[in-house]
């Protein structure tokens, strides 16, 4: 499939120079050739890309480096069964590496700071008048979030001498949870909280929410930042079968004149449905979800590359505008975090493809089908986040639509924050 350069315009992106347009064209052509099994032309496109991409160049050259590597891995996976396994397509990071990358992402971008600020303020407002609360953290990466929550709660309940807070955190690495517990216990003691920490060593994929050590009857807040989409990973054959079943069911429903249009998710997942149903049965007062505002969960490689390219080009543009090209931290973030995400989206399939971002428009019906109702994110949290953005380079801003919030670069929404209730 051949498309002219003008057809490769990325939504909302800046005007690229000649090399940038050529890179976009070659990446999309390479994806198309690879998907159709035309590996000779795909290899030629990779060769041409190798002369244009650079991990030390401008944002387009840098992002092209990681898409080129991902497409090369993809060709290996399609041609040879053993080589990709030996090369370990999905690289497992050590705990110190993962913590370093979390720290770099937190520092270079405002996204997590904004998500934590708005989540905390939304929880505080939902818990007005409560003296004992539970927090379920499905994506713990930074103990500071809950330290800040405790400080905010203390400021809002100065007339209440007793306040009990229980944090239940889910993580695959025990040492991450142990460090988090230690830091939060120190802060809770300083603020005169009765504090309990439940460490649950588990992946989200193997977690049954209803087995969590959460005290029934106490107000519960749930937080999940950039992790829920991993539950969409599934055996591709099973997913195709589910899509056919869903399409058939939807057709039958729509044949009835008394039936409303069924809001079926475009990418059904039994694992996701079961997990969300389990969360709903916990009866949370509020649940705040932050997710990538991109749609890279398609079955077509060409479609995934094009949509992922649009999303990650913008993330690399953010760094280009705010960080020196020679910063080691920037290079590490691009290579070990963003580059690995790109490889996972482009080169992995089935359960190995964890980075299955979907836009909020598909999360809404999925959460509503699980029984959740929409809630407003905190207006005070938005005000605090706006002040926070003033310390960053111009270009970042927030956009509110209905009750949902989007964090944007220029005109492009990159992350969504939504609040939900039982």
UniProtKB/TrEMBL annotation:
Give the matching Pfam families.
GRAS
Q: Where in the cell is it found?
A: Nucleus
Q: Does the keyword Transcription regulation apply?
A: yes
Which keywords, in A-to-Z order, does the entry hold?
Nucleus, Transcription, Transcription regulation
Provide a GO CC annotation, any one.
nucleus
Query: Domain of life, per the record?
Result: Eukaryota
PROSITE patterns given in the database record: GRAS (PS50985)
Residues spanned by motif LXXLL motif: 228-232
Family assignment from sequence similarity: Belongs to the GRAS family.
This chain belongs to which protein, by name? Answer: Scarecrow-like protein 3
Species of origin reads Vigna radiata var. radiata (Mung bean)
State the gene name recorded for this protein: LOC106778126
């Amino acid at each position: 499939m051949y498309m002219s350069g003008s057809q490769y315009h990325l939504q909302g992106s800046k005007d690229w120079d000649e090399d940038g347009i050529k890179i976009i064209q070659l990446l999309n052509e390479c994806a198309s050739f690879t998907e159709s099994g035309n590996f000779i032309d795909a290899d030629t496109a990779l060769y041409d890309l190798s002369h244009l991409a650079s991990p030390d160049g401008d944002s387009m050259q840098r992002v092209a480096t990681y898409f080129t590597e991902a497409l090369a891995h993809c060709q290996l996976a399609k041609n040879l069964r053993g080589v990709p396994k030996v090369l370990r397509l999905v690289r497992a990071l050590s705990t110190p590496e993962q913590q370093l990358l979390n720290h770099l992402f937190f520092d270079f971008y405002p996204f997590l700071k904004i998500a934590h600020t708005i989540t905390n303020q939304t929880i505080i407002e939902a818990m007005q008048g409560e003296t004992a609360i539970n927090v379920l953290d499905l994506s713990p990466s930074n103990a500071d979030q809950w330290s800040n929550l405790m400080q905010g709660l203390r400021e809002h309940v100065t007339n209440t001498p007793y306040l009990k807070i229980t944090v239940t955190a889910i993580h695959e690495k025990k040492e991450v949870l142990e460090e988090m517990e230690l830091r939060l216990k120190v802060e809770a003691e300083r603020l005169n909280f009765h504090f309990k920490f439940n460490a649950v060593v588990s992946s989200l994929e193997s977690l049954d929410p209803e087995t969590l050590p959460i005290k029934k009857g106490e107000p519960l807040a749930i937080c999940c930042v950039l992790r829920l989409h991993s539950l969409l990973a599934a055996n591709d054959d099973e997913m195709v079968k589910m899509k056919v079943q869903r399409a058939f069911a939807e057709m039958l429903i729509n044949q009835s004149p008394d039936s409303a249009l069924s809001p079926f998710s475009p990418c059904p997942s039994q694992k996701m449905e079961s997990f969300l149903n389990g969360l709903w049965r916990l009866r949370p007062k509020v649940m705040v979800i932050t997710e990538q505002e991109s749609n890279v969960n398609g079955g077509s490689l060409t479609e995934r590359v094009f949509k992922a390219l649009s999303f990650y080009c913008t993330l690399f543009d953010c760094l280009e505008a705010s960080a020196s090209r020679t910063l080691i931290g920037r290079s590490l973030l691009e290579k070990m975090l963003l580059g690995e995400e790109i490889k996972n989206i482009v080169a992995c399939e089935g359960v190995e493809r964890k980075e299955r971002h979907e836009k909020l428009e598909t999360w809404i019906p999925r959460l509503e089908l699980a029984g959740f109702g929409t809630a407003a994110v905190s207006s005070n949290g938005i005000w605090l986040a706006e002040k926070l953005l003033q310390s960053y380079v111009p270009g970042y801003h927030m956009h509110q639509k209905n009750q949902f919030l989007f964090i944007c670069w220029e005109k492009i929404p990159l992350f969504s924050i939504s609040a939900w209730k039982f």
